[in-house]
From TrEMBL:
Transmembrane segments: none annotated. PANTHER family: ENDORIBONUCLEASE L-PSP_CHORISMATE MUTASE-LIKE DOMAIN-CONTAINING PROTEIN, ENDORIBONUCLEASE-RELATED. InterPro entries: Endoribo_LPSP/chorism_mut-like, RutC-like_sf. This is RidA family protein. Residues 7-145 form the Endoribonuclease L-PSP/chorismate mutase-like domain. Signal peptide: none annotated. SUPFAM superfamilies: YjgF-like (SSF55298). It comes from Nocardioides deserti. Coiled coil: none annotated. CDD domains: YjgF_YER057c_UK114_like_1. Gene3D superfamilies: RutC-like (3.30.1330.40).
Length: 158
């Protein structure tokens, strides 16, 4: 992993930084304040469409939700890149919050959130290890099953 950029590691995973997902309301995808970038909640949008809709534990399987969390993380990476220009400037993924729209009896939110967490670890290595919350909620925008927001630290002067 040493010597490879975050985008090269994404390519090794068969992934690429997507276009920044368009906001679905009155906000921006990410804001930089000093050496921190805060993303808005990212939905599992790919090519302008949600991967799936519904509740995890109902219409959406845990495996599908894991893939959704990974797509949310990719979208968050795109939002960060739009703020900092080069993903190599990311010093650390500080905090990840995953919201999982789930049925009342579904308790696997941490496993779903691993879709995002494991991607950040694979892309940023040790700098991708982060604090995290995985929260079950009754509904998310557009009936998305997962939404992920991220805070990253950027190297000083980058």
């Amino acid at each position: 992993m040493a010597g490879t950029s975050p985008e090269e590691r994404l390519a090794e995973l068969g992934l690429a930084v997507p276009e920044v997902a368009a906001p679905v309301a009155a906000y921006v995808p990410a804001v930089r304040n000093g050496d921190l970038v805060f993303t808005s909640g990212q939905l599992p949008m790919k090519d302008g469409e949600l991967l799936v809709t519904g509740k995890v534990g109902g219409e959406v399987s845990a495996e599908e939700a894991y893939a959704c969390a990974q797509q949310c993380a990719l979208n968050a990476i795109a939002a960060v890149k739009a703020q900092v220009g080069d993903l190599a400037h990311v010093e650390r993924v500080v905090k990840v919050t995953a919201f999982i729209a789930s049925t009342p009896d579904f308790t696997g939110q941490p496993g779903v959130a691993n879709g995002a967490s494991e991607l950040f670890g694979n892309v940023f290595g040790d700098a991708g290890v982060h604090a995290r919350s995985a929260v079950g909620v009754p509904v998310l925008p557009l009936d998305a099953p997962v939404e992920v927001e991220v805070v990253v630290a950027v190297r000083a002067g980058a």
